[in-house]
Amino acid sequence: MVCDITALYVFKSLYESGSAKVVSDIYGMSPSKVSRYITILRDSYSDTLFIRKRAGFIPSERSRSIYPMVCAAIDKIESTGLRCNNSESRSEVVIITPDFMAQGLLSYLERFTSMQSSQCTIVLKSNSSDLYGDMLSGRVCMALGYLDEESVSFFRSNKSLKVELIDCCEEAYLIASEVNPIWQDRLSIESIADRPFASINHNGDCKVREPFEMYCNNKGLDLNVKLKTNSADCLLGIISNTYTVSISHSTFFAKFMSKHEGIRVKAIPPEQVDKLSGFTQFSKCYLVSNNEMKAIPINNIDDGVLMYLKGLC
Predict the structure, then answer these.
(1) Per the structure, how many domains does the chain have?
(2) pLDDT at 115
(3) For the whole model, what pTM was predicted?
(4) CB 138 within 8 A of CB 90
(5) 173 and 268 Cβ atoms separated by less than 8 Å
(6) What is the mean pLDDT of the chain?
(7) What are the backbone dihedrals phi and psi of residue 173, each rounded to the nearest 5 degrees, phi first?
(8) Which of 79, 101, 127 is the last residue of a domain?
(9) Buried b / exposed e along 300-309 (16+ C-beta atoms within 10 A)
(10) Alpha helices (H) in the chain, listed in sequence order
(11) Which residues of 66-103 are buried (b: 16+ CB within 10 A; e: fewer)?
(12) Rounded to whole angstroms, how far apart are CA atoms 12 and 8?
């Protein structure tokens, strides 16, 4: 049987991620070395263990039967103080966050963690091309983001990741300059559709239509979209200097915008928001973190992020 405990770690990580690339990144080994460990495992258990498909490595029946035992074996090994180390010690704590949440977050976390280890630095990034893979490999430690239900289910299916809901996004807020004539109207979806509109997409994909745009298209309303952006600064620029309006379903974003001089934010009446609910599911805001946070020399950093967000509201 297998005598190199690294093979057990490779098995567990491949089972959970379905990606040889993720395993390679986690343990700092070449793809060919990952393949060799897979071969060792297959020879040891006399089974293919994983079937390679376009979606990734799919575990066989044999893999599913031994997975709990491998996890138990790794837990016992680590209880003795041993563990399979990555090739490099962690020097950065990378957090993915929308740009509007990032403003002030770094300085807050630096104060929050000032009494702790200085072995690593906190780095904020606005996006990741492969968030799932980056989270599993440890390249990203935490992520704040707006996710749909399918993505949330996918993240929660992996035991290595912790997913917390922090904003239900069930309301809608009108955002416009204080001098915009729209504030003289009764707030309704139809009156908003008469104004120049800027679409803010917190998911980062400006090609995706937000519910208000879909509603207007369905009802034949001639919505004049002046801007599609995922940048708070771009939205602020057009709203401050024109009569363009915007809608956001994020409480955090609405509070953030309301703190800017010359900007007014108001909740749209619930009966008007209900008109949008049938067109698409609103993405909710989640905090995703890696359960292997014990490997990071900054304790309770996730608590610091949550305290900062609470301060936004």
Answers:
(1) 3
(2) 44
(3) 0.64
(4) yes
(5) yes
(6) 81
(7) -125, 135
(8) 79
(9) ebbebbeebb
(10) 5-17, 20-27, 31-45, 61-79, 99-102, 105-112, 131-137, 149-156, 189-193, 211-219, 232-241, 251-258, 270-273, 301-312
(11) beeebbeebeeeeeeeeebeeeeeeeebbbbbbebbbe
(12) 6
